[in-house]
What we know:
This protein is α/β, with parallel strands linked by helices. The protein contains eleven helices and ten strands. The radius of gyration is 19 Å and the shape is globular. It starts with a strand and ends in an 11-residue tail after the last helix. The structure holds adenosine-5'-triphosphate and magnesium ion. Magnesium ion binds next to α1. The site of magnesium ion has 3 residues, from α1.
Amino acid sequence: MTLLEIRNLSKHFASGGRNVAALTDIFLTLEPGETLGLAGASGSGKSTLARILMRLLPADRGSIRFRGEDWLALSGAGLRRRRAGMQMVFQDVLGAFNPRATVASVLDDPLRIHGVVPKAERRGEVAALLDRVGLPTSYADRSIREISGGQRQRIAIARAIATRPSLIVLDEAVSALDVSIRGKILELLVELQRERGIAYLFVSHDLAVLRAVSHRIAVMDAGQLVEAGTARQMIENPQSPTARALIAAVPRLMTGPPQGHKHEF
Ligand SMILES: Nc1ncnc2c1ncn2[C@@H]1O[C@H](COP(=O)(O)OP(=O)(O)OP(=O)(O)O)[C@@H](O)[C@H]1O
Ligand SMILES: [Mg+2]
């Protein structure tokens, strides 16, 4: 069964006399275990789409089916329960969590809220999550602001997988990281996907990042979906001027030999 099906999704913002069509009639689907890269210049509507998916923002019209259910019709306890299935990783982890919170509490919250494991097993589960994302279990007692940006991003990933989701939305999740750390985080994400069959909606303006992780790539421009195809098709044979411009912005994509395999960091 298709995991996620977005149809006719539209959203506008009216502010200060300006009317912005942030999303216009977006259609997208995502299969279980698949990574869909979402590319597009700044302001093209990527984060708006991510926020509507996460139910942080209402849509004007359109529908979203997630795991066969009408996702936008859910509310209250029904929505809370199903939120475990769709998690998000932001670029700015410090802004998303209380910086004074300990790593342990950031990871324990979703376990408690969603009742992922019995109370007596939560400490052990926190340790297992830390271990899975490559951090020492002693980090549990540190505060979020006492760890590096790359480590914080690992915590955000650990928190996202804590509820055993079938979809994780990543909005510029590696954009602020140094290139070397970025590669390691991308490797971790790909490993987790293979291991757990998680699907990713991977938002990034960086096509080099998207090529490394995406099975398919969709390109947005001014709120419209202008192109979608396999990652390879899109990068080797772009059809839209928008995609061509994004590719031209990453010179190392065009040099180098054709890629024989998908994941290369
Ligand atoms: N809360 C808001 N109020 C008014 N306009 C908004 C709001 N949020 C987004 N917009 C506008 O909607 C459009 C799409 O914004 P969005 O943040 O989705 O773009 P983006 O593709 O994520 O860009 P970036 O790559 O810079 O993150 C932009 O024109 C933006 O200014
Ligand atoms: Mg954005």
